[in-house]
Structures are given as structure tokens and as C-alpha cells.
Amino acid sequence: MRLRALLALNLAGVLAAWSTGPVIGIAVANGTFQVDNAQVAGNSTLFDGSKVETTEASSRLRLRNGTRVELAAGSRAVVFQNRTLLEKGFGEFQAASSYEIEARGLRISSARGTPIVRVRLDGEKTVLVSALNGPARVFKTSGPLIANLTAGATLRFDPQAQSESAARMSGCLLRKAGRFILVEQTANVVVELRGDATQLSAQLGNRVEIQGIVDASGQPAEGASQVVRVTVLDQIGPGGCVAAAQGVGAELPARAPVPATIAKPKHTTAVIAGVAIAAAGGVIAGVVLLNNSKSKSP
To answer: What is the enclosing helix (H) or strand (E) of 15?
Structure first.
């Protein structure tokens, strides 16, 4: 009888482990919040795939891999060992580059080190991303790099603004290893340009605005995130691209006049792989953090 009871207990333990998965961290809050749709107070263990939802108090998530997540009040996220899916509200993340934050069709991660990155969902479609004290990168969920953020920068993304292949951007048109590239000024990325070689050559070293189609099948030049086939090309300013060329190792422009008045592009919002991207001013305000907690990491 005792043996049967022990076997039953062992089986129950195995089934419980299968149903919850490995422990990945702990969530703490000065108040109540929900974990997997159950209300908890103070703290709760997190498993791979746990859903955390805050109400009036923020919650701090500390994972065993060193990742720290601060969820603001009125936020919801699903937490995994290697990523967090932000479904509602606002979060602050500090993690290695291998850890990603997913939000409305975007993947966000640090470019190096463990800087603080803030991500906020606005309205029904928009995502705001701030790189607080180090660089961050933004990708399409199943696609290319679409933005590099330097420390202190904030960009606004609308992933559903255009068709998947739409492209409109401005920056310095240069040549590297025999290929035309654009050093984009809003999202701070490099793309390869393909199209009328005569037209592209005529604008080498100038600041231009282009419209085109993303060629998902094209293999981009080294250092470029994607290939864009240009359909419209307009100059917005002669020269002024020496620093950009030096920054990416491109050929130095033969001419580099710096005009007294710098023309602005027709559009202030870039469109890269169908995502509308615009500068959004200062860094997003931080989450109101918790007071000291007596809870310990697992």
C-alpha cells in the first residue's frame, strides 16, 4: 500500500512538472497582480510561458538568466526563457542581446551589453522604443533589421502602415565594394539600392530620398540589412556625406560640398519593409519601480 502511495505521489509530481515546465524566475509586486489568470499578491514563481498582468501596481520580473523586466501598471506580457511578448501597456527591459522583446510584429533586443530598453504600446497599432543607456536593434518578427537605436534615441513604429514590401527612406547614397548603398538617417540602417545605375551614380555622395520595393530574395551587400529596388529617386541636398561614408567604410565621395541650407526630405517618416518609422523625441518615461522586496530569486 505504501509503495502504491509513493508511486502515485511521484507520478503526480512528474505530471505537474510537465504541465508547468521549468521555473525561469520570479515576479514581485507591492500589491496584487495576475499570473496565468490567477490573482496573486506579493510574489509568484514564473514558468516558461507564464502570462503576467498588472492592474494598479507595477511588477518586477527577475529571470534566472539575468534578465530584468519592469511591467508598468495596466500591462500584460507572456514571459519565456529567451523572449518576452508584450501584449499590453509598457515595459522596461534589461537583458543580453540574445533575449528579445516581441511587440506587434517587431522583435527588439540590445545591440551589445545589457542596456535598458523601454517599449510601450500606443493605441491599437503603434510601438514606441527607447534605448536608454546603450544601443538597441529592431527587426520585423520574421524579417530583416529595420532600425538601430543609439543611446538616448526613441523611435515610433507602425508595423501595419504599408504593404510588406513598401520602402521609402532618405539618407546618403554611397558606393561600397562596387554596390550602391543608402545610409538611412531616421532608422540608422544601411540598405543596398538596385535600379538604374546611371541615375544612382549621378547622385553618389548626395543626400537623397528614395521610394521602392524590398527585394526579399536579394542577397544584400555586406553590412546592409536588405535590398531595395528603387522606383523613385530625388535629391534633397548635395554632398554632406563624408562622415556617413567613413562610418560604414564606403568610398569617399568625389565631391562633398556642404550647403548653407540643408533641404529636408518630403516625408518625415521612413517606411522600411512596410513599417513606418519616425523619430519620437525624448526617452520614454520610466516605470514607477517597486520598493525593496524581501522576495529572493529562485
So the answer is: helix 2-20
